[in-house]
Amino acid sequence: MSKADQLLSKLPPPTQLPSFVTDALKEPSSRSTQQADPVLNTTDMTSQSFHTPMFSPVITHKNEENFDVPTSPSSESGTDKSVKSEQTSGNKGDLFNWMRGSSSSIFSMVAEKAKNSVDAVLTTLDPQMKDAFNPNTFDGTDVVVASEKEIIVSAVREGFQKVFGKSVVRGLEAPDQPFAAQLVGFSAASKATKYRIDSVRLHVVKGPVVAFERFIVEPIESKWYEFGLLKLNDMERNIDLEVYTQSVPVPTSIVSLINDDTPKDYEHISTGFSIPVAHFMASNLKVHPSEWQEIMTGVSQRSSLLAASVSLAMSYKNALE
């Protein structure tokens, strides 16, 4: 026998290994029950009393404003937040309402300015369009001018609008009148304007009618002047008014030429001459027949007619009162 065998023969035999599985199975069940986690003990859980969780809405229904909700620290903080949010939304609503109101006023101002601009352009292109934009007038009546010449109608319109504010003035052409082409004397001018008014009265029954005529007169020997006569008649109110424009000197030589060129058998020779003064004056001054007054006096025909129209409108206003 070798030394190795001798050493191995001296070792004791192996002992039996312990079985941990069987030991665990042999442990009493009561011990496991007693040492179990109390959180997992269903008996203890069911024996304890808990409050049933309730949902507390932040925003309540309109019909449930007085509904009592259990308060708690979390619900109180939620209520505070809801109040703040309602205040914030209220402030935003006021801001939006203000912006909406201001924007509407701004839009209305812009629309009004645009309308005024369009009206100004239209009235510049066609002065008679003023009547369409200003439908109201004094006493609800229109002023009719017995002529369709724009220089006469526009001057009368502007004069009446300066006195009455808004007034409707329109032109209506009168038929040919049985008077001389160039009227001479106050009486001839008055008869010619009355004839124009009476002719327009066939179509216009109510309201004032205005007529205009130019004439020359010799107040002093060898001193001739041209005037313009504005006559107003309101048959309904029994008002008759006459206003004269500024005088314009006429050279005696021009009047002599007109007199010489008028036929002796001229049918209207009792009221004047057959050739207007403006024809010779415009030919000599090389201007339009409506501009010779301005060359002679520095005042245009329309300016003098406008001044007379304002005076006539003021006289009519005083007569109405």
TrEMBL record:
| Compositionally biased residues, Polar residues | 30-51
Matching InterPro entries? ITPase-like_fam, PRRC1
Q: Which GO terms describe its molecular function?
A: protein kinase A regulatory subunit binding
* Region of interest (Disordered), ranges: 1-95
Which GO cellular component terms, listed alphabetically, does the Swiss-Prot or TrEMBL entry include?
Answer: cytoplasm
Among PANTHER family, the record links this protein to: PROTEIN PRRC1 (PTHR23276:SF2)
Q: What is this protein called?
A: Protein PRRC1-like isoform X2
Organism, as annotated: Sipha flava
